[in-house]
Amino acid sequence: MEADQHPRMDRPAEFQVEDLADGRAAVLAGDWTALTLGEAAEALRRALDGAPATRLDLTAVRRFDTAGAFALVKATGGRLEALHIDARPETLRLLDLVARALASRKPEPFRRPNGLYELLVRTGKGVVGLGRDAIGTLIFVGHLLVVLGRSVANPLRIRWAACFALAERAGLDAIPIVAVTAFFIGAVVGLLGANMLQQFGAQVFAVELIGIAVLREFNIIITAVLLAGRSASSFAAEIGSMKMNQEIDAMRVLGVDPYEALVFPRFFALLMTIPLLTFVATLAGLFGGMMVTWSVLDLGPTFFLQRIVDNVGPTHFWIGLSKAPVMAAAIAGIGCRQGMEVGGDVESLGRRVTAAVVHAIFAIIAIDAIFALIYMELDL
């Protein structure tokens, strides 16, 4: 009576194994579902182990799902085609579906990891990834050159408000950190030069060491590295977040070129501000070196500046400043390209921002080395 009042109440899975004249029969009852199987599946497998059944009676089974079908197929060893099964048509179809799915699954052969093989696989993937990055870089550079050509041909297309806003944020706001860092670099170079040259009685040449090191190398290197960590990461994060939110796709739908609206203003902003920041770094570095020579070697500011003008000259300053546009193009291009490559998840954004900083710093060091070789060949 209770079962009639609650026809949907779960009933545990049950079975009974009977011996017949022509074999054994397994009679199942109750609900053979994932929620009601319990220990019945394992008990049926043990009961049929060694003495398999030749007949299955599922007419008393109420509910039957893939979990029950899986348990029954495993208990019978997958030999359903050799059994006589009494069941409803839908139960037979589910059993056949699960049996065919299990039969189609072939276990993958175990392969012992090979260190050399894994190394070759990783190397191959790295080479393929490097090739894809090279192709993507060429595509990015080509698109940017097209935008530059259009902007030069028609300056009215340039978004001047965005260019100057980005120049203020990437350039003017970076003056304090660039000046402080360059000041300490100049002071460190002066201190090292004074201590080493004092051993040879040539401490006065510390002025030339400071002047050449700051004017030729450290001013642009410090500026570029700071902007790589400050602006390249910012560009990648800003454009990458817009890519994640599908704002760039919306711009394309509206007919706005993202390279013209997002990449070119950032490229132009760094192109304008890096020479200014390099000049600020030069002054701060020379000032730091002058303070060290004044306090350690007792060489006054007038003497320091006079030796800089007489023995160092403006050539080294112009050599350092000539690297600025190339550094600006590399930093802005790498930051914007990594931002355009961001996928749809936060993990991709983090990887691309990190890659923007690392690639930008590597490009700065490589560009400086190339310039050093060129000027060495030119005897400058």
Gap from first CA to last CA: 105 Å
What string gives the helices and strands in order? HEEHEHEHHHHHHHHHHH
The tally of beta strands, per DSSP, is: 4
| Inertia-based shape | elongated
Low-confidence stretches: 1-6
- For the record, the count of structural domains works out to 2
Structural class: alpha/beta
Question: Which sheet architecture does the biggest sheet show?
Answer: 4 strands, mixed
Radius of gyration, in angstroms, nearest whole number: 38 Å
Characterization of this structure:
- This protein has 380 residues and is of the alpha/beta class.
- Helices cover 70% and strands 8% of the residues.
- The chain contains 14 helices and four strands.
- The protein has helices spanning 2-5, 40-48, 66-75, 89-104, 115-153, 160-170, 175-198, 206-244, 247-253, 258-296, 301-312, 315-322, 324-340, 346-377, and strands at residues 14-20, 23-32, 55-64, 84-86.
- It has a four-stranded mixed sheet with strand order 1-2-3-4.
- Helix 2 (40-48) packs parallel to helix 3 and helix 8 runs parallel beside helix 12 (315-322).
- It is elongated and about 120 Å long.
- Mean pLDDT is 84; it is low at 1-6.
